[in-house]
Amino acid sequence: MVSLLDSLPPGLAKPCALKRLEKSGRDKVVSRVKDISPGLADSDVIISEIRGGRKAADQCLAHLNPAKYGSTRNHLDGAVTRLSPYIRHGVVNITDVRDTALDISSAKDSEKFIQQLSWREYWQRLYKEFPRNIWQDVEPYKTGFSPDDYQDNLPRDIAEGRTGIASIDGFIDELLTTGYIHNHARLYLAGYVCHWRRIKWQAGAAWFLTHLLDGDPASNNLSWQWVASTFSHKPYYFNLENIAKFSGDTVDTRIETNRPLAGTYEELYARLFPNLEPKK
Amino acid sequence: MSIVWVHEDAITLNHPVFWTAGPAVQPIFIWDTEEHDRRAYSLKRRVFIYECAHDLDIPIYAGRPCEILPVLAAGETIYTAGTPNLYVLDVVADLRKSHDVTVVDAPQLAHIPANTDTGRFFRFWNRAKKSALTHSSENQIETATAP
What we know:
The structure holds two protein chains of two kinds.
Chain A: H1 26-35, H2 54-62, H3 66-72, H4 84-88, H5 94-104, H6 107-129, H7 156-159, H8 166-178, H9 183-196, H10 201-211, H11 217-228, H12 240-247, H13 265-272
Helix pairs in contact in A: 3-6, 5-6, 6-11, 9-11, 10-11
Chain B: E1 2-6, H1 16-21, E2 25-31, H2 33-38, H3 43-54, E3 60-62, H4 65-73, E4 78-81, H5 86-95, E5 101-104, H6 121-132
């Protein structure tokens, strides 16, 4: 590759590249980003501990354990890779990640991990097929409600993590401070927004895209639709017992601080989807 | 001089677009704050993206790609990585009014027949599983080759 740009048609002003920053010093990066982002709100000051770049991606890849991932991935403290921000921005190629997994483990032991990579590819293929429909409902809701029954905007208590439900507020805090949350926590938040609060999935999806370092319209929006039931056979919902099962000691799952989520699946189904036939 | 536009969906120099473009190209990244504002990216997202781009040690310009790329390319071919991202698609469509633009896709994880019903993930997975679980070095269908 050549290093400089020097030939321009006459009459055109040559754009100037930004002055390169020193390699060290994250403060300088943050300062630069603020300088070149005049539209950013003054109140937006949170920086994630997760760093961008190939070196950071390689550190995640070095810890990849496909077999352990397969057996623990649904647990919030499971052996997930945290590679998704790097895959989303193409810092690492998805086929290279797959090949690394197959170098470490057999195809059988790598299957759950590679299946999860395939979800991303699946969403991307759908996005490529219908790029201008990524904010539209793919199918009708299967919740007994119509789109008009759902709020358009995300309430402030959700956006700020002040719902009063301890587990939900904990997940939101992690989203806001790190820009990364476990996939299961994403499902809990999306289920809460769509079904407990009856808010349009689009509002929740946009909120995630603001904060998630790995947020991309395909995986994010279509996953929200999977939860909402506009791209699945039924709505995804959960109960407090499920959060407790998969979170271990990492999340406050006491009943007294999480009452709206407590109950059997049958009870919650009747409460959340009163227009549907009772769940047997 | 030909340009490779490194956009936010492929912040890498290890992509087939570079094999297609050849060695005499200038990769650049463009910081489009208007687009970030439109997408309501938080500071942490912007910092992450900037760090990824900065890590490549390539020129970073601030502005709109449709304004910067034609000036820098000055009539030469513009290369970029393929993506379904509407923002990139719209920029490419605009650039093609005045320039030759070559879009190169990354290799896919899985190879499935074109007529496969992809209405649900597991229909896709059942057809994709075999090739998805095969290492690139063994996957005969993979056509991308290094220079």
